[in-house]
Amino acid sequence: MQNSLTNILFIVNTLKRRGAEQQLFSFFKFLPPSIAIHVFTFSSNREDFPELFDYRRVTIHTNPHAGTYNIFRFLPLLDCFRREDIDVVVTVGLGAALMLGRVAAVLFNRKIIYSTLNTFVNFNRLPRVNDAYFDILNKGINNFFTFFFHRRIFRFLPNSEQLAAMVKKSLKAYPVQTLYNGLPLNELSGKLGKNAARTIEPILSEIEGRPCVIQVGAIDKNKNVAFTLECMRNIHRHVPDALLVIIGDGPQKPDLEKRVEEYSLSDHVHFTGQLGRAACLALMRSADVITLTSLSESFPNVLLEGQGLGLAAITSDVGAAKEIVSHEETGYVIPVGDQNAFTEKLQELLEDGDKCKAMGQKGKERILERFSMDRKVDAFMTMVKEDMRRLGND
User: CA 24 to CA 32: how far, in whole Å?
Assistant: First the structure.
């Protein structure tokens, strides 16, 4: 095996503009320029994430065969391996990317095969034993690889310690190393274009001088924005000038807009709709508290962003939230659905500006130290170099 890293192939299920894919795109931008980045996707729709398809550093290989269980989906992946001289293979997520990606990598004698994991729930329909994280087929493949292919390096790279514990419990002999999501610090101070600035100027004027809560994400059942609205309804009696800014769109938005009117909160709740990333970060920068009230999450990147901008954070205890937010130091982590506790802590921060700012500052320092994209890329590159050196010495 050569000693220098030249080509990495990332195998993904789809390329949609979601948190996991956006994290991957940011990761690409921070990889050393000497590395050629290849992406194989089992979907072929470039309209889902056009920025990634247009990014010059990345060569994207698509799959023209539709259908989840279409066996021909495997052929374009094999062809990709035939044409490209790949040093490191990284499968992203579960499903076909994980299973077929690792099989193809072994068939083509690739030595370093990593699998990043970013979800706490395995939705594959195959049976599992004792609620294991992996289904029977994937567990069998994992054990087969580690038993028979000794001169290869396989690693699972979950993006949180909690997820790592789930994976280790399911596969006790398989190498697992946590690789946290990273925050691109250069984006935090990004400049606004003229159109974006005009879009958010009226909202910024509403925020100025008022204690402000901001929530970012889809307005759907899982994100549970209605929960935040109910909290603000109670808080308004004690903090009458408080403002809630909701960035995003979704099926529950019309219903929530009606509730805002019913609760006489029209001057205290602002729905922005979907915003570009720079505009979203600019509004977050002007707020005091970032909230997350989801019923379930894996690794909520919005908590990284909010704290990276100096906001105190209040979040439901979902996914890796307690690893991102240090309870009672940079914010509060509240049991899911505990509206009284959530309301109490949110009101406390809106009333006590000094405490809110102190938590926000501690959160910013903690995020910059532990969760920067530079740190993630450094950890990844160190791991790759050590594994390449190890194989070269065998």
Answer: 14
Longest CA–CA span in the chain (Å) reads 71
Structural domains of the chain ordered from first start:
7-182+372-393 (3.40.50.2000), 185-370 (3.40.50.2000)
Q: Is the pLDDT of residue 92 over 70?
A: yes
CA 272 – CA 148 distance, rounded (Å): 55
Q: Does 141 have pLDDT greater than 60?
A: yes
Residues with Cβ < 8 Å from 113, sequence gap 6 or more? 88, 89, 91, 102, 105, 106, 152, 153, 154, 155
What are the φ/ψ torsions at residue 263 (nearest 5 degrees)? -85, 0
Q: How far apart are CA 48 and CA 383, in angstroms?
A: 31
**Local structure of 34: helix, strand or coil:** coil
The upper half-sphere exposure of residue 89, i.e. CA atoms within 13 Å in the direction of its Cβ, equals 31
Residue type, 207: I
**Backbone dihedral region of 182: left (phi > 0), alpha (psi from -120 to 50 degrees) or beta?**
beta
The identity of residue 186, as a single letter, is N
What SS3 class is residue 341? helix
CA-derived radius of gyration, the chain: 22
Residue with tokens 């001289």: 85
pLDDT of res. 24: 94
Question: What is the structure's pLDDT at 78?
Answer: 93
N-to-C CA span, the chain: 10
pLDDT digits (tens, 9 = 90+) for 192-208: 677 777 888 888 888 98
Rounded to whole angstroms, how far apart are CA atoms 22 and 18? 6
Q: Measure CA 220 to chain center.
A: 18
